[in-house]
Amino acid sequence: MSRKRLRRAQRLACAIQQIRGHEVPERAILHLFGRYIPQFIALTASSPMVQGFDTQFDSARLNSVFSFPLSGRAPYVLSWTDFGRFYNKMTGTGVVESMKDFYWDIRPKPEYGTIEIRVCDTPLTVEKAAALAGYVQSIARYLLVEAPFRPDEDDYLVYAFNRFQACRFGLDGQLVDPRTHERIRIGDDIVDTLARIEQHAIELGAEGACKAVRDSLAAGNDAQWIRQRYAAEKSLPEVVRQQSEFWAAGK
Predict the structure, then answer these.
(1) Looking at residue 74, what DSSP letter applies?
(2) Which fold has domain 3-244?
(3) Which of 38, 120, 202, 229 is the most buried (most CB within 10 A)?
């Protein structure tokens, strides 16, 4: 592994946090990205196994996170000022001491004026992680420049359903559009999104990253790869060994 790849690998923890690195307009503090959370879950899902058993979920890890009392979606506030009031109320209860006590799918980083997307499993290669970062940034630019929709609390009526579909079925899950109520396969929704953000990816120099995301759809997510290897090897330690080789090779 090259030093450059090693440095990038060292920045990855057990689950990826994609930090959207531009100043966030107050009205878009958290909620514009909620529409795309199922995509990020499905693309990065790589935790089908728990204690040696296939859970039938592509991302079983998020089920554990969801059991925490301050997990799920953030409260519907639309400005840093209102968020500050909410935060002060929560710290006043003694339940919360810092932002790290919130396990939301999307969490603000007030000191930087950014947001963190926190639903991703760790991809099996650094290259895929980097591609996903470019995809997230391109969506962010699309939302900020074109402003295709405004935050609406009713968008969350389908949030838990869409989140479950992504965790359970990955790219084959069904997503309900919060505005039109139409259903679409999550993998197909990603293809549609890639078409919408193409020019924004070019402006950011992220067209290669978005192409890598598109190309990855044919092979499926990493949960599928893990299941395929386990079916062939019948040994979870051997699958883990092959995962390590896969990571080191950067395929």
Answers:
(1) P
(2) Creatine Kinase; Chain A, domain 2 (3.30.590)
(3) 38
At 60, is the secondary structure helix, strand, or coil? coil
Q: Where are the domains of the chain?
A: 3-244
- How far apart are the C-alpha atoms of 62 and 153, rounded to whole Å? 23
pLDDT tens track, the chain, 251 positions: 444 443 443 333 334 455 554 444 545 657 889 999 999 999 999 999 999 899 999 999 999 898 889 999 999 988 888 888 999 999 999 999 999 999 999 988 877 777 889 999 999 999 999 999 999 999 999 998 888 888 899 999 999 999 999 999 999 999 999 999 999 999 999 999 999 999 999 999 999 999 999 999 999 999 999 999 999 999 999 999 999 998 888 75
Q: Can you say whether the dihedral through the CA atoms of 6, 11, 13, 17 is positive or negative?
A: negative
